[in-house]
Write a structure and sequence with these properties.
The chain is of the alpha+beta class. It has 19 helices and 11 strands. 50% of the residues lie in helices and 8% in strands.
């Protein structure tokens, strides 16, 4: 019985980056022997055990055989005769198919160290093509390690997988899981570049894929291309270490530009409405978490209004707050402002340009929040006992008055 550290822990240690979790493979043991040694079985599809002291996971070396389409169509085989190399060859990339023995020696049967030095993602074997999740994983790794590129033969294999329909067998939850993890990496745009290069993005997120090649007015978007703009937006969000819902909103906010008739290019009047409709469709198809869906919808619908905030009257600003449910959920509204700022700064030459709209609307909301709705309602009921319908309007007008005062302090006319 021999135990090895495998996979990402070995890769990260060789790269000199912090190792978060360690995966262990046990060679030469049976499930019965593991139980006798005090390990607790927890695996569902294949034997995995928790160490009796550290609670770390130890998996028995295994092989796998493809039996059906998709990423769940596998039969696993494990016994004491499965070798370490047989276990490693089933892994996705050479840089993830290395092991370290108990004496610290690196076991590298497929050239992972060479590919690490060359900053290359290369598949271990043709079995890579049996699991479509691996396309998403390669793309996610590209977002984590943006200096790496995909080997030409690996990209060709991924293109073949897409053409054969393997990606279409992915369940929505798994697609979103990998996309979400990639969005939280250091350079999310690299994930989408890899997905586009192998044509997987067209199958997974066609509403986003069509944005490349769609022009925008150069005076507002020097980068011109909408797809390029979106990538700059999500990379800016990543640089600011923003939350997943904000990054998701940044990714999806301009989907409506993809349905603008070409004869209207480069303008996209009313794209916010189309964007919101497409966000609804994407959220339903990929089963986005509610917090991601709701913020993305609000950002798609309102980012144009946020950009025009300095031109809006107080009553329009309060209507914006009410439409966004900002008085009940102020933090979500502030997150929307953060996503709108990413939209502003994610343009060529705009990264350091001021975006006063964010602080402007945040201050206006803070002023409007000082209105005590209960007190206003009580006073209105006393004055108009038979007209309860006056209460919402009275509260609205009080909030407008507070916002007018705030805008005056900010130096804006409040006519």
């Amino acid at each position: 019985m021999r135990t090895y550290v495998v996979g990402g822990a070995v890769r990260d240690a060789l790269l000199g980056v912090p190792v978060k979790d360690k995966d262990y493979v046990v060679v030469g043991a049976t499930p019965e022997q593991m139980v006798q040694l005090g390990y607790r079985p927890v695996g569902k599809d294949f034997p995995v055990f928790l160490h009796p002291d550290t609670r770390a996971e130890y998996a028995l070396a295994r092989t796998e055989r493809k039996t059906a389409p998709g990423y769940k169509g596998f039969v696993f085989h494990t016994d004491a005769h499965v070798t370490l190399e047989e276990d490693l060859i089933r892994r996705d990339l050479t840089i993830n198919a290395m092991a370290q023995d108990e004496d610290g020696r690196i076991v590298d049967p497929f050239g992972g160290q060479t590919d690490l030095s060359q900053r290359l993602f290369r598949h271990v074997s043709p079995a890579f093509a049996e699991d479509p999740v691996r396309i998403l994983r390669v793309a996610r790794f590209a977002a984590r390690f943006p200096e790496f590129t995909v080997a030409e033969e690996t990209n060709c294999l991924m293109q073949q997988m897409v053409a054969q329909g393997e990606v279409d067998a992915l369940v929505p939850e798994r697609v979103w899981q990998e996309l979400a993890r990639g969005l939280m990496e250091v350079r999310p745009s690299r994930m989408f570049a890899v997905l586009r290069d192998c044509s997987a993005l067209q199958r997974i997120l066609p509403e986003l894929d069509v944005l490349w090649g769609v022009p925008q007015p150069a005076q507002h978007h020097p980068e011109i291309d909408t797809g390029v703009h979106i990538m700059m937006v999500i990379d800016y969000a990543a640089s600011q270490h923003l939350s997943l819902p904000i990054r998701c909103a940044a990714l999806l906010h301009d989907l409506g530009k993809g349905v603008t008739p070409p004869e209207l290019w480069p303008r996209h009047h009313g794209h916010e409405m189309h964007s919101a409709r497409l966000v609804e469709a994407v959220s339903k198809r990929l089963r986005l978490p509610n917090e991601c869906r709701d913020l993305a919808l609000m950002t798609a619908r309102e980012h144009g209004n946020v950009g025009r905030a300095m031109e809006l009257r107080a009553t329009t600003i309060v209507a914006l707050f009410e439409r966004c449910d900002a008085f009940r959920k102020p933090q979500r509204f502030l997150d929307m402002l953060a996503a709108a700022e990413c939209d502003h700064r994610g343009r060529t030459g705009f990264a350091d340009r001021a975006f006063p709209q964010r602080a402007y609307l945040a201050a206006a909301l803070e002023s409007a929040q000082t209105v005590d709705g209960g007190l206003v309602a009580a006073a209105t009921r006393q004055r108009y006992p038979d007209q309860p319908e006056r209460i919402p309007e009275a509260i609205h007008q009080q909030r407008v008055s507070m916002v007018k005062a705030c805008l005056a302090r900010c130096g804006k006319a409040t006519d």
